[in-house]
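Exercise (ungraded).
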Amino acid sequence: MCLAIPAKVISIDGSSALVSIEDVEYKASLLLLNDVKPGDFVMLHAGFAIQKVDAEEAAYTLQLLNDEEKHRPGSV
Amino acid sequence: MKYVDEYRKKELILSVSEKLKAISKKEIVLMEVCGGHTMAIHRFGLNSLLPATIKLVSGPGCPVCVSSQHFIDTAMAYSKLPGVIITTYGDLIRVPGSSTSLEKERANGSDIRIIYSVLESLEIAKANPDKKVVFLGIGFETTAPLTAAAILQAKKEAIANFFVLSAHKIMPPVMKALVSEGVKIDGFIAPGHVSAITGTAIYNDLATTCGLGVVVAGFEPVDMMQSILMLTSQIESGKPAVEIQYQRVVQPEGNKIAQNMLSEVFEFRDDRWRGLGIIPKSGLNIRDGLSSYDAEVQFNVSVPESTEPKGCICGQILRGLKTPVDCGLFGKKCTPSDPVGACMVSGEGTCATYYKYRS
């Protein structure tokens, strides 16, 4: 029920956006989110964008994990 | 898919698993509150990657599962009123009420429509000015703001034939209720998308007063494993705290616009949870100033005392006290195609998840 999927914003028309998930386009209401621009990723939940995906945080979290992985004893 | 595939990398999952096995000494119980997390754990077989010291139990975070029988029976009563169109998310349509389900009522001729977005209800209302459209509002803090936005939009567009039957609920009171009831939990894997709306302050009590770890988790296997690692590390070091693993989506302050809409439209009320009873201030009631959109105020129906199905242990499963395999009905009289209890209906219900991934 609380599922939300990352979707890329293609275009914005007033309080509504066209978003894309794996090349399939959906309409997303922007009634709950300000400052969205094309190219942003948003979490799509039941037809609404409920939060932006923070690209820097995403990269940082993965970087930390990947670094640890590389430094594991025995890994190449 | 971006922001999904990276978090499903086998090497990363295994590396976190090894780390977890290295640091875990105490026997601990972690509750994944959200049905979406239960699904992820079973879908990706994460239990097999945990050390024997860590036990995961499922919690009450499936809205369909915790909606009371009375709510379903009321929805059914509305669906039989002349000139009423019921709109609902798909999950709810097969939930058995005391005597029938919305699906059966639809087959009997009631106008019940499954929608993807609550805003479709407004379109249906505009296209059918002579009908009354009642949306069945279920869901936690993730979903309730959508309903709030729809009510405010209806007000803005002066749509007078749109109504909401609210069974919206919030998470913190039920999490606290489980703890004060004495359910053994050392830490919560907290719901990521609820927290994207609410922020993290709602969990502070659990860490400071109850001494429990709380980690807000994403829904991919790397997210889940990392969250379990963070919780285990907190518990092993004796420093329970509220932390965010799902930082790409959850900000400590949450989504202010959604929070403001929630408080503009709803107020807290004591609410009934299936199998758990009445929990103080755990439900969302439409405020008096917007009562022209409140189905409970606008429609007068008499609903007989609701009865819960005999033999169903949904209530104990929602508390993390039992698992579906402890139930005599599971897989026999109760299956996804012919469910007895709500936990078998919703795809993210604990029973439906266990059934789908049973070995």
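Further reading is listed at the end of the chapter. For now, observe: The mean pLDDT of chain A is 88. Chain A is about 20% helix and 40% strand.
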